[in-house]
Amino acid sequence: xxxxxxxxxxxxxxxxxxxxxxxxxxxxxxxxxxxxxxxxxxxxxxxxxxxxxxxxxxxxxxxxxxxxxxxxxxxxxxxxxxxxxxxxxxxxxxxxxxxxxxxxxxxxxxxxxxxxxxxxxxxxxxxxxxxx
Length: 132
Description:
The chain is built from 1 helix and 4 strands; from the N terminus they run αββββ. It is an alpha+beta fold and about 130 residues long. Strands 1-2-3-4 form a 4-stranded antiparallel beta sheet, covered by helices on one side. The chain is rod-shaped. The termini are far apart.
């Protein structure tokens, strides 16, 4: 609206947002979205680690089943070695302790390692006892 002298006057009924209000809304929205982004990254890393633990546990259980299938007299220790592809980011080790926990028994431990340059940052361990 213009006055007779040509100057603009402000109407009290102007509707809309001021520049400051818009900028504050953008800052608040940005902080919220950045928080969600970092949360998403954490969730993805957690899911990846859970997948690695599940794979390592499955590899250990598979070896345990092989050991139980071969039986008491055929069980043998295995040195720590990288597994064949597609599981080549894992290492597996089998240890056998004779006469433990009692005579004519063997404690068999299967450890699966993974992670890091040496593939040994994390591990899962499973034990079983075989009797004669």
